[in-house]
Amino acid sequence: MAEHALTQPGEASSETSGLRSIASDFASDRQAFRHVSWGKAMMWVFLLSDTFVFSCFLIAYMTARMSTTVPWPNSSEVFALTIGGTSFPLLLIAIMTFVLISSSGTMAMAVNFGYRRDRRKTAALMLMTALLGATFVGMQAFEWTKLIHEGVRPWANPWGAAQFGSSFFMITGFHGTHVSFGVLFLLIIARKVWRGDFDRERRGFFTSRRGSYESVEIMGLYWHFVDLVWVFIFAFFYLW
Amino acid sequence: MTQAAAHAEGQQHPIKLYLAVWLWLFVLSACSYFVDYFQLQGLLRYTLITLFMVLKAGLIVAIFMHMAWERLSLVYAILVPVGAVLVFVAIMVFEADHTLLSRMTFLTSGP
Q1: pLDDT confidence of residue A18
Q2: ipTM exceeding 0.90?
Q3: Which of A76, A109, A107, A108 is nearest to A93 (CA)?
């Protein structure tokens, strides 16, 4: 039976759910993630490693904040915006959150239209996603400028514990870098979609693989992950 | 796996589902903003923040990243290692408490 499973993938994948399917997939002596292309599997593995990177940053922030004897700056006041004399707490961060969620929505739509093989809509939605991502980075640059003008440094700030600055620049800086590279890759994939690479299965310049609309989904995985990380940063760094 | 089969396996879900999830993400984000806006404090604040965060993360991973429809072996391979992060958090909570205690004992300049 076991040898049968090696030669006939159709039969081996008869288990479709439950722990037994996991056991049979990992014991199959073939590719473990059945029906999952290596591109997608590798993106997931990369995202897992990236999860650990951001986890380490957030845990370092937690440790610094829990162990300091100096009071932690009140993020609600630090990140407040004053418009027309009234001060709105966390307003810029809220807008940034909505921009990033919107970009995640347009990305999900792009993936959907990609699998419907709708070239124009996919490219347009990806460009929209890239635009929203660039807007996010722009607002982050504004936020950094504002805080640096107010005297926040990685080693000191006017309101309290010095670790506030180092945590802030490290965490949001790394996240911003991720968004920036995401925008870059969105533009590259959007160009390929627009040119019809995935309709004509044109081979990629780097991997020489046939183009496929799955690239849009893999790009989407990365982009949603960036949004996912922001959910945690928003909760732990800005709101907590 | 040929390309043709991969296409057939491609994730096809109604647009309506994505729009609904999008709307929910907006609502949940607004909720977590209002937690700060109304200056809720204490246990209520932390519970609400964590609740909205987990719901948002769950929606993004399950629907937007298609984890809900992926094969179980991939889901487990990705989600189980994340549990190690929680162990790390627990370790560092003890570590931070110990550091704080040491600092309060030895660093505070007494009269």
Answers
A1: 81
A2: no
A3: A76
